[in-house]
Amino acid sequence: MTSQQIDLVKQTGRLLWSIDPALIGDVFYSRLALQYPQVRALFKGPLDVQYGQFADMLNIIVARLDRPGEVAVEIADMTRWHEAYGVQPAHYAAVGEVLLWTLEQGLGKQWNADVRDAWLACYQELSQQMLARVYAGGYAAEGH
Fold first, then answer.
1. What is the Cα–Cα distance from 85 to 63, expressed in whole angstroms?
2. Coiled-coil intervals in this record (predicted)?
3. I need a surface site. Which of 23, 43, 92, 141 has the fewest CB within 10 A?
4. Taking the model in full, what pTM does it have?
């Protein structure tokens, strides 16, 4: 990601945090269930807990985008959680598509090609790092 893309993600991320996290989570998981029910079925437990985890994860990652070492710690945790849920490498594209759609809905008129490209670059970078961990043996390979 470029520094401009990081700035755009942070700026638009702040706009998203002004929206109720449960609403963003509901939009994301509802769309995921509609478009990819096989992926949505992997995320068990109360939806309000899932909504909160989703919003917290987005907030933490966005806040730390300019601190790669801290993001790496979050990626390790997310990889472990996703492996526990049974998320497969093929699911990452589906989640990315739904995430971008959710962000577009949440940002409304603030959504444009530059914002889309910035969030896409962010998701691609994070998911590539997560997939690299999965293919290398994931979290367990680190002795955790």
1. 25
2. none
3. 141
4. 0.82
